[in-house]
Write a structure and sequence with these properties.
Belongs to the fasciclin-like AGP family. This protein is an alpha+beta fold. Helices cover 31% and strands 22% of the residues.
């Protein structure tokens, strides 16, 4: 009796499939909104069993197992296009359950995109995924040769499954590389292209090891009570990323009460940027600067001014606001200082969204 040289892969993939299914079930069930009931077996079983069979016939055994055992992980939009990752890419993974869930979400789009739909898109166009704020981009398209690459990864098995609200393609590898060094951090572990508001590619995948952890900053601000400022920063973050994507460090001055979150978007954008410096200044570094020294902000030609150095009461005053609690959060790439009140932006023109 002859054995395939790859016979040993079968038990390995089966074991990984069961493990991933268990992890996916636990994370998916915890994340579903409480006001949305779980899909019933009668509504999901036929289509997902068929999809699972199609995936298995094409060699995508691990994703096939997830479809059959826990389809809920892919059910967060009325329509879905799933890009199936090869078994070899997942079998070698050692990530945590939440990271694997994020990885699968990044390979699922809430749009329904057949191969013909993908071929109609132009090179450099982006489309959303189920992972918040994370897009993928068409980096190569050749309608004549029927070739599509997404994030420089070839769609190797187009139209594996096309039925109802579900479209599935197979790809040669994952759309993102995950550095194990950053797995335990809560910020941008999934590296993705930068796209503008028109879903056009602005920049290729950037190395997150060298940029500011904006998501981490927002979560830290929220956890310490700076909720209104965190909401404001989150609201304008896409604009900041469009023209300041390569910032390697920042200083954030966080006011405890930021009452401008309902302001017109253009005004909110300027006010938030006025509280951020494009480099990191610890309290000690700020205190060492002379009085009347200027600090460049994320608004061109709109600087902050140190109106007084550290005095006998150990207070540092910038634009009339005191640094109440210095170095609340400090990392290699950012520092956050609490200030007594919002910086006043002089001669701010009247704007509307």
């Amino acid at each position: 009796m002859a054995f395939s040289p790859n016979w040993w892969r079968a038990p390995v993939y089966f074991t990984v499939s069961v493990l991933l299914a268990f992890l996916a079930i636990s994370t998916a069930l915890r994340s579903l909104p409480k006001n949305e009931p779980l899909p019933t077996e009668s509504t999901t079983a036929p289509i997902f069993l068929e999809a699972s069979g199609a995936l298995r016939r094409s060699g995508f055994n691990i994703i096939a197992a997830l479809f059959q055992i826990t389809p809920e992980i892919f059910l967060s939009s009325p329509h879905s296009t799933i890009f199936a990752i090869p078994d070899s890419s997942i079998a070698n993974a050692s990530q945590t359950s939440w990271l694997l869930k994020h990885l699968f979400q990044y390979h699922t789009s809430p749009l329904q995109l057949s191969m013909n739909d993908l071929l109609k898109k132009h090179q450099g166009s982006c489309f959303p995924t189920l992972l918040h704020r994370k897009n993928v981009a068409i980096t190569r398209v050749d309608a004549k040769e029927r070739v599509v690459e997404i994030n420089h990864v070839l769609v190797s098995h187009p139209d594996i499954f096309l039925e109802g609200p579900l479209t599935i393609h197979g790809v040669l590898g994952p759309f993102t590389s995950i550095d194990p060094q950053y797995v335990e951090q809560v910020w941008d572990h999934i590296q993705s292209p930068i796209c503008d508001s028109n879903l056009s590619l602005v920049s290729e995948v950037i190395d997150t090891k060298n940029v500011v952890e904006w998501t981490h900053i927002i979560r830290l601000l929220s956890s310490r009570g700076f909720v209104s400022f965190a909401i404001g920063l989150n609201s304008v973050l896409d604009r900041i990323l469009e023209d300041k994507m390569n910032l390697s460090s920042v200083t954030v001055f966080a006011p405890p009460d930021f009452s401008f979150v309902a302001s017109p978007s253009a005004l909110l954008d300027k006010l938030v940027r006025f509280h951020i410096l494009p480099r990191k200044f610890t309290y000690k570094e700020l205190a060492s600067l002379p009085a009347n020294a200027s600090l460049s902000t994320l608004i061109p030609d709109r600087d902050l001014e140190i109106s007084g150095g550290v005095n006998v009461t150990q207070e540092l005053i910038i634009n009339g606001a005191k640094i109440v609690t210095p170095n609340i959060f400090l990392s290699k790439k950012f520092v956050v200082h609490e200030i007594s009140h919002v910086f006043q932006l002089a001669e701010l023109p009247k704007t509307s969204s």
